[in-house]
Design goal:
alpha+beta; Helix Hairpins; 8-stranded mixed sheet
Length: about 425
C-alpha cells in the first residue's frame, strides 16, 4: 500500500508510474482517492472545530451559571453538538474505509531501472550463466522422459485429482526431496533461518501480502473457513510479522521457507497442461528478507545472486532478466526472473522470481521497525525463489538426458541421492 502523504503531496509521481504500467484505470482511482481524502480531512477539521465549539460553550454555560443567569439556550445548543460530531465522524469512518480499500488497489511505485514494456517479450536480459548442453541426438521433452523412465504417473493423478497434478515415483520423488534438502542446506549456510510455515492463512493477512483483486483467482479457498491455502511460503513468512514493531538491531531478518504451494493457475488454460512444469501443487524453497529501507536494494541483489549460485551449482544454463513494467505485477517495485534453458522446448522458461516489494507489504501489514535513536518506519520486504523443485526437475531431465534414455544426476545432488549418479529406466508395473 502506498503512503497517503505521497498521494497528497506528489500525486504526479504516482500518475507517471501508473502510465509506465499502462494502468490507466488506476489513474481514475487515484483521482477518487484524492477527492475522498480531501473530504475526509475536511470532515476532521469540522469535527475539531465542533469540539472546540463545545468546549467554548461549556465555559460559557459555567460562567452564566456562576453569574446566576439563564443558560438554557446555551444548554440546548450544546446538546446538538455531540449529534453533529457523531454524524460527521460516522461519515468520516465510511470515507476512511473506502480510501483504505482503494489504496489497496494501487500498485507499488516502480524502481527507475525497471524496463518499460507491455509483456514478457520486453523483459531485459541482464546476464547469462552456465553452458548449454550439446547433444548428438534429438533431446526428448521431460514428459517423454518421465514416462519412459517410469518415474511419474500423470494419468492416475489426473484420474483422482484432475489436470496439473502428478504422482512422482521412485528416483524422481527422491530427486524432489534432494533438491529441497540441498536448497535448505545451501540457504542455511548463507545465514538464513529455515522455516516450515503453516499451509493455510487467513484473509486479513493475505490482503496484506498481495493484491487479492489480482491474486485471489489463483488461490484455493477453504470452504466455510476464513482460510486460504498458501500459494508460496513468502506469504506466511512475511505475514508472521503482522502488526509488529521490530527492533532495527534485529534487521535484516533472513528466512528460508520450505513448503508445498497451491495454485489454481487460472488464466493459463492450455499452457503446460502436460507434465510437471506448471501444477496446482508443488514444492518450493523460498528466500525472504525483512530489512531497513536503506538496505533493500543491496539485499535484492544478494537474493538474486543466491538463486543464480544455486542454479550454477546444478550446472544448468540460465539467464537473468529484469521484468518489464507490463509483466511485473502490483506488489514488486522491481523484479528479476531467472529463466532456465530447456533444450527439448528450444526456449528459456522461468524458474525463479525475485522481488523487492519495498514498504508496500509492510505498510499493509503494519510491520514497523524502531531504532535506538527512536527512528521509526515501515520495514522493506523482499522475496526470491531458491528453487521450485518441479521446474528444476524439468530442467535437469531435459539438460542431463543421455542418448540411452537415462538421466545423469547433477554432482551436487549425488550425496542427497544416497550416491545415485544416474536414473535409468525401470520396468513399468501395473
Amino acid at each position: 500500500m502506498l503512503d497517503i502523504s505521497l498521494i497528497r503531496e506528489n500525486p504526479e509521481i504516482i500518475k507517471k508510474d501508473l502510465e509506465k504500467r499502462n494502468a490507466l484505470d488506476k489513474i481514475e482511482l487515484l483521482k477518487q482517492i484524492r477527492k475522498k481524502d480531501d473530504e475526509w480531512r475536511n470532515l476532521k477539521v469540522q469535527v475539531d472545530e465542533l469540539r472546540h465549539q463545545r468546549n467554548n460553550i461549556s465555559i460559557e454555560i459555567s460562567k452564566i451559571k456562576k453569574e446566576g443567569g439563564d443558560a438554557s439556550a446555551k444548554l440546548k445548543e450544546a446538546l446538538q453538538i455531540p449529534k453533529m460530531i457523531q454524524e460527521k465522524e460516522d461519515f468520516a469512518n465510511v470515507l476512511r474505509k473506502e480510501i483504505d480499500a482503494a489504496l489497496m488497489q494501487l500498485p507499488n511505485i516502480l524502481h527507475s531501472s525497471v524496463p518499460i514494456g507491455s509483456d514478457e517479450a520486453h523483459n531485459k536480459v541482464v546476464r547469462k550463466f552456465g553452458k548449454k548442453p550439446k547433444f548428438t541426438f534429438k533431446p526428448r521433452d521431460h514428459v517423454d522422459l518421465l514416462q519412459s523412465l517410469f518415474q511419474a504417473d500423470l494419468e492416475r493423478a489426473a484420474k483422482i485429482s484432475g489436470a496439473r497434478f502428478w504422482f512422482l515415483r521412485d528416483k524422481i520423488a527422491q530427486l524432489d526431496l534432494a533438491l529441497q534438502k540441498y536448497a535448505a542446506d545451501f540457504m542455511v549456510k548463507k545465514g538464513f533461518t529455515l522455516i516450515q510455515p503453516p499451509y493455510m492463512m487467513n484473509r486479513q493477512v493475505y490482503e496484506g501480502v498481495t493484491d487479492l483483486n489480482d491474486f485471489e483467482n489463483v488461490m484455493y479457498k477453504i470452504e466455510n473457513e476464513n482460510l486460504y491455502l498458501i500459494a508460496t511460503s513468502e506469504h506466511p513468512l512475511v505475514g508472521m510479522f503482522y502488526d509488529e514493531m521490530l527492533s532495527a538491531e534485529c534487521l535484516p531478518i533472513r528466512l528460508v521457507g520450505i513448503s508445498a504451494c497451491f495454485r489454481k493457475e487460472a488464466g493459463t488454460h492450455g499452457k503446460d497442461e502436460k507434465g510437471i512444469f506448471r501444477g496446482h501443487q508443488f514444492n518450493k524453497v523460498e528466500q525472504v528478507i525483512l530489512c531497513r529501507p536503506d538496505d533493500s536494494w543491496k539485499l535484492h541483489e544478494e537474493l538474486i545472486k543466491n538463486a543464480e549460485d544455486f542454479f550454477k551449482a546444478l550446472g544448468l544454463h540460465c539467464r537473468t532478466v529484469s521484468v518489464c513494467t507490463g509483466d511485473i505485477g502490483a506488489v514488486a517495485a522491481k523484479k528479476y526472473d531467472i529463466e532456465c534453458w530447456m533444450p527439448a522446448q528450444d526456449t528459456y522458461r522461468e524458474v525463479v522470481s525475485c522481488s523487492n516489494c519495498t514498504d508496500y507489504q509492510a505498510r499493509r501489514l503494519k510491520i514497523r521497525y524502531k531504532a535506538n535513536d527512536n527512528a521509526k518506519g515501515f520495514a522493506h520486504t523482499l522475496n526470491s525463489t531458491c528453487v521450485a523443485t518441479s521446474r528444476a526437475i524439468v530442467g535437469i531431465l531435459e539438460n542431463y538426458q543421455n542418448k540411452d534414455g537415462s538421466v545423469t544426476i547433477p554432482k551436487v545432488l549425488v550425496p542427497y541421492m544416497n550416491g545415485l549418479k544416474k536414473i535409468e529406466a525401470v520396468k513399468a508395473k501395473k
